[in-house]
Design goal:
459 residues, seven-stranded mixed β-sheet, Aldehyde Dehydrogenase, Chain A, domain 1, 2 domains, alpha/beta, Aldehyde Dehydrogenase, Chain A, domain 2, globular, 15 helices, six-stranded mixed β-sheet
Length: 459
């Protein structure tokens, strides 16, 4: 594997030196080529997602292919505008110069994707890397090997390896890739592996974007629409069987509405997935036996209010609600990443805010409330990568919003839409002046009246 990776990188170095990846017409043509290649292989992708996670066609399109198409269509349409050098204000102290910002590619980019949305979380970053003018090595997760193989077939048959290449493999392949010197690394996954990526990147001072996860809190205020809130949280939590970095991870419900809320929650779950969710084609499965065993153990952290059914042969865990959960219990320590939802209660809004702030900063934070004061306090007094009020997960679809974490949940900048182009670009300052005018103010010997002028200009 080391020899294969070395050969790919040498060829990519030569391709970068041709400056072809920087050409805007070339970038747009490659984006169009990628879009068509995916269209030609949609059934292959649907089959792979079903084999890996038992994702229905509906969920595969709405959470995977549809988001990819939306992203790549936007880049094809807007790239020429985004890539233009943009003039910015030049102060009088810099007369007679002009100033501008130019987006330039990093160069060789490594993208390491995740298993939970194995198509979208690989392909949307790839769109941005192409759009920004980079060459790419894409390493999908080995835990979704059917989708990994599908992407390898599509991309490696569409592009030359000196430009874009999918490299498949296990953890040893990741280790070999991280030994190499990259111009930028984009990683989606857990904080634990994110630390490994960051350590490897630090050896070469390589810039990184880490899209991680966290325990995303949901505050359910007593002043909320209980039925709609329960329905939206249930959908957001159990989408992809809870294997989503933006999924609600635990509930903080006002004690006055706890019982009514849980009754509504149960009603909506049965409507979504029937009273026998295992037979539903709309409920995904757990990605590995290791994850299955971990999630099964976590169900011991409280009282099972609803669900709790497991079938290891089918990698199935039913949508499960846990009550009587201790804040120090195992289910409250790390991101759950599965169809288990712990429920805690509070009596005063301050308690919920303090609880969130006592823990690592999450990727997403949610509030369900009609109280204007509490909405403002939620936004002003908590910290998270993203925040949503009266909805779950759907903000992810808005390409105008940068998606990314803060602190333990991520770093390096958000992406989606124009932000994806920007995160794979370096903003280079461009400063132009003339030699026909050469003001003497900057040069020694310095005199007092010159300093007065400088102070006036820079005050």
């Amino acid at each position: 594997m080391a020899g294969i990776i070395s050969d790919i990188l040498k060829k990519q170095d030569e391709f970068i030196k041709s400056f072809q990846p920087r050409d805007i017409k070339f970038r747009v043509s490659q984006l169009k080529k990628l879009k068509q290649a995916v269209k030609d292989n949609e059934q292959l992708i649907y089959d792979a997602l079903w084999a890996d996670l038992k994702k229905s066609v509906h969920e595969s399109y709405t959470s995977e292919l549809g988001l990819f198409y939306n992203e790549i269509s936007l880049h094809i349409k807007k790239l020429r505008k985004w890539a233009q050098i943009k003039k910015v204000y030049t102060p009088l102290s810099c007369f007679p110069s002009t100033s501008a910002i130019q987006h330039i590619p990093f160069g060789r980019v490594l993208i390491i994707g995740a298993f939970n949305f194995p198509f979208q979380l690989n392909m949307v970053p790839l769109v941005g890397a192409i759009s920004a003018g980079n060459t790419v090595v894409l390493k999908p997760s080995e835990h979704s090997h059917h989708t990994s193989a599908a992407m390898a077939k599509i991309i490696n048959n569409t592009f030359n390896k000196e430009y874009i290449r999918v490299v498949e493999g296990d953890i040893e392949t990741n280790k070999e890739l991280l030994k190499q010197r990259w111009d930028m690394i984009f990683f989606t996954g857990s904080p634990r592996v994110g630390k490994i990526v960051m350590e490897a990147a630090s050896k070469f001072l390589t810039p990184v974007v880490l899209e991680l996860g966290g325990k995303n809190p949901v505050i359910v205020d007593k002043e909320c629409n209980i039925s709609v809130s329960a329905k939206r949280i249930a959908w957001g939590k159990f989408l992809n069987a809870g294997q989503s970095c933006v999924a609600p991870d635990y509930l903080l419900i006002h004690e006055d509405i706890r019982d009514r809320f849980l009754a509504e929650f149960k009603k909506h779950l049965e409507k979504f997935y029937t009273i026998n969710p295992e037979r539903s084609n709309d409920l995904s499965r757990i990605r590995s036996k290791t994850a299955f065993a971990r999630l099964k153990k976590l169900m011991e952290s409280g009282t099972i209010y609803f669900g709790g059914v497991v079938n290891e042969e089918d990698d199935y865990i039913s949508p499960t609600i846990l009550t009587d959960v201790n804040p120090d219990s195992p289910v409250m320590q790390d991101e759950i990443f599965g169809p288990i939802l712990p429920v805690l209660t509070f009596s005063e809004f301050d308690e919920a805010i303090d609880f969130i702030n006592s823990r690592e900063k999450p990727l997403s934070a949610y509030l369900y409330s009609s109280n204007r004061k509490n909405k403002n306090r939620f936004l002003q007094q908590t910290s998270s990568g993203d925040a949503a009020i009266n909805d779950s997960v759907t903000y992810f679809v808005n390409h105008k919003l940068p998606f990314g974490g803060i602190g333990y949940s991520g770093m390096g900048g958000g992406y989606h839409g124009k932000h994806t182009f920007e995160v794979f670009s370096h903003k280079r300052s461009v400063y132009k002046t003339t030699t026909k005018i050469d003001l003497p103010l900057r040069y020694p010997p310095y005199v007092s009246w010159v300093l007065k002028i400088i102070k006036f200009l820079l005050k």
